[in-house]
Inverse folding.
């Protein structure tokens, strides 16, 4: 007996949407079984989660706080994945963006906000883009597998951050604890009153979502990115510079993740420290897939996952279930969405 | 066929539900009466408090199954939950530092009266919550900022590390002693120094070699660090990391014929290394939680008078215990070896075994007013700078911000440039 995997014809848009929806529903049902197993009524569990995420203005505000970094990371990843460049390194690119922005914030604390904040965003973008360009360059020049290199660079970024906050950047006002000093007021992003929503970053995210949508659907570059993704052979015949495309998508996805890092340090924590990201860069991978690599789809998926992160609190706080249930929940959704995607594009044939 | 599978499936499902039900309700061992110390101050008027209930929430940075920090806090939470009929507790684990604000909000909205936040990184969030909810009570573990309704608490280990150091200095043959450190925070530095001061008191030759993990919980890194220290000739190991890995490495080498001495950290680890673990540090957070909660219940603590409430509890308050297991301060396997090493007690000049010295110091530090403290001068740092004058005891602040090593430590504390 032989199992053979064959590529099928390209799925239509409706079929693809149906499969995704079906995958999510299957994931929710599986999770429901686990809630039941813990003796929690699944319906009331989902109700609690939804209420925790979207039920009150406060819940909404916290969901948006989580949406901001998720959106920035995942729309960038959407572009890279479209070109079949597997950038797993958004987490590291986010951290480097946070580091470079912190460098600016700590060195020019007295600049007025109007110039300091843009400088921080620019440096964050450049930092993230450079961190993305390293594996991009290795891929373009030496065919180095970007899954490995981007993933490994996450750990390097994480350790660089630790080195900085435990060593050279350890704050003089922090009693020897591993934090940089608090940013000066002009290095802190304004927030919507009574919330933690740092709206400049939110606006940047929304504008970039629209811009990337236009880029991908209306421009020559977007067309080239898609062609490279469909078939590298075909792109060669069409005269598309494959190496250039790799570098461009890594600049976009790395830079955007870097912006997310700036938002976290300048908008939420107001200092650099370990733990500024609870894995936004990794969750963004799931979101990019769930959003069908389409910037608008990703926007919706980011809000949903932001809500899941926030409403997920309720799994612990009012249902008393262990934290790992939240991770399991995320894992189930990725598993079913990716399997759905796979089964839609490939046929499994069993030959005797 | 089909119905048969259906029945088996149903049976399985019921069995699983049963198991889940059992797991969901732990057998809740009733607290040993001997460990319940009545709080002298708790003389409430029965009528006013008989119906009062307190809901307390605990926010943890790690998973409750880490066999270290979070595990110890959660054990204490369960203990007080069983002890006080008027208390209801709940917890949230693996809460990222940036999310603490939201978890606190959630618990307050669920009607909790008291919130314990158990990681240094929650400090600012806890203070902010205190201002936001002025009629609720908060306690933050290991921080230094307080507010009228936010107190702080910590169970401190340095006395135990000093006692471990006495034993390490007596047992080592190679005079190379390793320390696997989590992060170079003042707390860990303070513990390494206390360990080194103990070693120095009985062995002027031995040096302490430090490896940093830059993680509180990372068994694989801890294993690498322990192995690399052993490869460099170290035969005695202490550590700060939330798993029994270092003890397990010591046990493995000892079983292969190379005796390694180890000191357990945070939880009882005798069973992980019966032939290697000499002594260790155990914590009793329940002593602190019991005291805080009963004082909240009786109204001694309220949301206006916590500005100066700071628990810094050690041996005399029974918040920490020397041991490889509860009630076993020293692994019996090594007692004779420790009795065979004779030293001069530095205050009286009297000759005694290291075992007796450990017991003497333990007693002195457990007294109501401790008559001995490891951090008594003269203490010199690595550069020969005098950090404590002869006879001077280092107080809370220099210990709390410690960023230098004593003279017999090899390695350095990462410093701001």
């Amino acid at each position: 007996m032989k199992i053979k995997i064959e590529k099928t014809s390209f799925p239509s848009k409706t079929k693809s949407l149906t499969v995704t929806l079906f995958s999510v529903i299957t994931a929710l049902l599986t999770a429901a079984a686990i809630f039941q197993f813990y003796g929690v009524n699944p319906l009331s569990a989902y109700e609690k989660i939804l209420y925790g995420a979207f039920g009150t203005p406060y819940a909404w505000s916290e969901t948006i706080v989580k949406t901001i970094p998720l959106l920035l990371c995942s729309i960038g990843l959407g572009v890279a994945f479209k070109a079949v460049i597997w950038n797993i390194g958004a987490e590291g690119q986010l951290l480097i963006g946070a580091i470079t922005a912190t460098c600016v914030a700590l060195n020019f604390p007295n600049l007025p906000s109007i110039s300091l904040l843009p400088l921080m965003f620019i440096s964050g973008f450049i930092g993230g883009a450079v961190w993305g360009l390293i594996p991009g360059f290795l891929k373009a020049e030496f065919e180095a597998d970007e899954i490995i290199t981007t993933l490994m660079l996450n750990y390097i970024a994480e350790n660089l951050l630790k080195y900085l906050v435990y060593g050279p950047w350890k704050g003089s006002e922090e009693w020897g604890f591993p934090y940089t000093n608090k940013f000066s007021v002009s290095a802190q992003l304004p927030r919507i009153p009574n919330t933690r929503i740092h709206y400049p970053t939110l606006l940047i995210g929304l504008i970039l979502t629209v811009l990337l949508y236009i880029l991908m659907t209306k421009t020559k570059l977007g067309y080239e990115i898609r062609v490279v993704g469909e078939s590298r052979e075909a792109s060669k015949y069409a005269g598309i510079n494959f190496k250039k495309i790799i570098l461009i998508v890594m600049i976009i996805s790395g830079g955007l993740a870097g912006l997310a890092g700036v938002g976290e340090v300048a908008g939420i924590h107001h200092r650099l420290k370990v733990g500024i990201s609870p894995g936004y860069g990794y969750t963004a991978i799931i979101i990019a897939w769930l959003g069908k690599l389409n910037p608008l789809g990703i926007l919706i998926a980011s809000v949903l996952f932001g809500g899941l992160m926030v409403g997920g609190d309720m799994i612990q706080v009012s249902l008393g279930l262990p934290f790992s249930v939240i991770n399991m929940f995320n894992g189930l959704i990725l598993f079913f969405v990716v399997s759905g995607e796979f089964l839609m594009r490939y046929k499994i044939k069993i030959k005797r | 066929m089909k119905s048969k599978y259906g029945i088996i499936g149903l049976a399985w499902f019921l069995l699983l539900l049963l198991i889940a039900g059992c797991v969901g309700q732990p057998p809740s061992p009733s607290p040993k009466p001997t460990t319940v110390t009545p709080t002298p101050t708790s003389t409430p008027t029965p009528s006013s408090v008989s119906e009062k209930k307190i809901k307390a929430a605990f926010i943890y940075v790690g998973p409750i199954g880490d066999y270290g920090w979070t595990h110890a806090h959660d054990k204490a939470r369960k203990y007080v939950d069983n002890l006080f009929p008027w208390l209801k507790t709940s917890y949230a684990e693996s809460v990222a530092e940036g999310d603490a604000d939201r978890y606190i909000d959630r618990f307050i909205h669920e009607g909790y009266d008291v919130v314990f936040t158990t990681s240094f990184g929650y400090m600012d969030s806890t203070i902010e919550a205190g201002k936001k909810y002025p009629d609720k009570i908060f306690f933050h573990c290991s921080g230094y900022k307080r507010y009228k309704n936010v107190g702080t608490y910590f169970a401190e280990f340095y006395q135990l590390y000093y006692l471990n150091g006495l034993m390490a200095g007596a047992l080592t043959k190679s005079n190379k002693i390793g320390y696997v450190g989590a992060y170079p925070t003042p707390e860990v530095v303070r513990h390494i120094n206390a360990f080194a001061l103990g070693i120095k008191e009985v062995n002027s030759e031995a040096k302490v070699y430090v490896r940093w993990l830059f993680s509180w919980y990372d068994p694989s890194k801890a294993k690498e660090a322990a192995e690399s220290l052993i490869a460099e000739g170290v035969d005695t190991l202490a550590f700060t990391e939330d798993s029994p890995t270092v003890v397990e490495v010591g046990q493995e080498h000892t079983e292969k014929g190379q005796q390694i001495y180890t000191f357990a950290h945070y939880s009882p680890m005798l069973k992980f290394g019966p032939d290697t673990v000499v002594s260790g540090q155990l914590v009793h957070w329940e002593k602190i939680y019991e005291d805080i909660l009963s004082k909240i219940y009786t109204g001694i603590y309220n949301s206006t008078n916590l500005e100066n409430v700071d628990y810094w509890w050690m041996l005399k308050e029974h918040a920490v215990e020397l041991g490889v297991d509860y009630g076993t301060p020293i692994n019996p396997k090594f007692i004779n070896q420790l009795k065979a090493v004779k030293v001069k007690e530095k205050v009286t000049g009297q000759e005694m075994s290291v075992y007796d010295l450990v017991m003497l110091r333990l007693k002195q530090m457990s007294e109501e007013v401790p008559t001995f403290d490891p951090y008594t001068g003269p203490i010199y740092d690595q550069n020969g700078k005098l950090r404590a004058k002869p006879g001077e005891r280092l107080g809370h602040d220099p210990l709390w911000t410690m960023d230098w090593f004593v003279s017999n430590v090899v390695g350095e504390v990462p410093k701001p440039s």
Q: What stands out?
A: The CA atoms of residues 114 and 186 of chain A lie 8 Å apart. The first strand of chain A starts at residue 2 and ends at 7.
